[in-house]
Design goal:
The protein is built from 12 helices and 12 strands. The chain has about 350 residues and is of the alpha/beta class. The protein has one domain: Alpha-Beta Complex (Spore Coat Polysaccharide Biosynthesis Protein SpsA, Chain A). The radius of gyration is 20 Å and the shape is globular.
Length: about 350
């Protein structure tokens, strides 16, 4: 009988070259998982949900390099066909429902803990070392900083060389720091951690005094949480995964954190050095050009974060969930085509 994986990693994509170099970024992501699992000896289940694969392009199973013998990774590629995708009202303008696709992976994950991430992420040694310690706790949700790096990293084939390049070429960092969540401190203050902790403590006390109802979510680490949200499979089921909305995915990832907070889960942020690297690519909604952003979102219904914040505050007050998803969220009762590679076949 096969050993149950401690960690399931879930991501979604389709072979449409979204953002440019999509297959190269996806292969780098897979190679990063293979490298880190081999280095640490941690058995990992890697689930890629191929949502609505384009009919005129090769399937992921035909173009991605799968784990070699001896790599402790079970790769599962689960296909959600166009027939399912086309049941959504905005299927023509939204070719991929990112958070619903991740729910497909969450519902089918076999790991004790499930990490939802994206296909342009590379894992640091320190981040994966934390997984390998196997000291994660149910009742907690875990976050990691995301550090952007130039796509030049794809010119390096060796994952170790990629990490060396990333460490030296961070262009920007997203996320908060444990113990310093309440204040956007300048980076130099990290060299004086005791001072930073004191400033954070004082500011939290003042904020709690001035805004007592907002205190529980003042320190929530929502920036780029779609790239890294980790909790036990039991807790993912408890919050009903991500809300399944017929909308563009922006801010739906944050709704998952609000659910966890409202149901009493504790946030833990990995140290800044246990970050994940994000390979930069072209994008639509945050291109930096407001006119391009408006054009990108013109035919895609999407949420404003102020609405999420207000709804989340009410949820925390009443200790309830969004109550949007049906019992079969993640298409739990649907049998999808699945290809399995790696440790499962050894």
């Amino acid at each position: 009988m096969l050993e149950q994986p401690y960690l399931s990693i879930v991501a979604t994509t389709r072979n449409d070259n979204h953002g440019g170099d999509l297959l190269a970024r996806t292969q780098a992501f897979l190679n990063s998982v293979y490298h880190q699992a081999t280095r640490t000896g941690l058995l990992v289940e890697l689930i890629i949900v191929e949502w609505n694969p384009p009919a005129d392009r090769p399937r992921l199973t035909d173009v991605l390099e799968v784990p070699k013998d001896g790599v402790p990774v079970v790769l599962r590629i689960i296909t959600v066909p166009a027939a399912v995708h086309n049941t959504y009202g905005f299927s023509k303008s939204l070719p991929l429902y990112q958070m619903t696709a991740k729910n497909v992976g969450i519902r089918r994950a076999k790991g004790e803990f499930v990490l939802c991430t994206n296909i342009d992420i590379l894992f640091t040694d320190q981040c994966f070392d934390r997984f390998a310690k196997k000291d994660l706790m149910s009742g907690n949700y875990y976050r990691s900083n995301r550090c952007d790096v130039p796509k030049k990293v794809l010119e390096y084939a060796d994952p170790a060389k990629q990490l060396d390049y990333c460490e030296k070429n961070i262009t920007q960092r997203f996320g908060k720091t444990q113990g310093q969540e309440a204040v956007g401190l300048p980076r130099f203050i990290y060299h004086f951690p005791r001072v930073a902790v004191v400033i954070n403590w004082v500011w939290l006390k003042l904020w709690k005094l001035m805004h007592p109802r907002q205190f529980p979510f003042f320190t929530m680490d929502t920036p780029t949480c779609g790239d890294f949200t980790l909790m036990s499979k039991k807790d993912w089921l408890r919050i009903d995964g991500y809300p399944e909305l017929d909308m563009y995915s922006i801010h739906i990832d944050s709704m998952g954190l609000w659910s966890a907070c409202a149901l009493g889960m504790k946030q833990e942020i990995f140290p800044y050095y246990a970050c994940v690297y994000h390979i930069e690519h072209e994008t639509g909604w945050d291109s930096g050009d407001v006119m391009k952003t408006i054009q990108f979102l013109a035919d895609k219904p999407s949420l404003d974060y102020s609405i999420i914040h207000r709804g989340g505050m009410e949820m925390v007050r009443t200790k309830t969930n969004w109550n949007i998803n049906k019992d079969d969220w993640g298409w739990a009762n649907e049998k999808f085509e699945e290809a399995v590679f790696g440790a499962a076949n050894n």
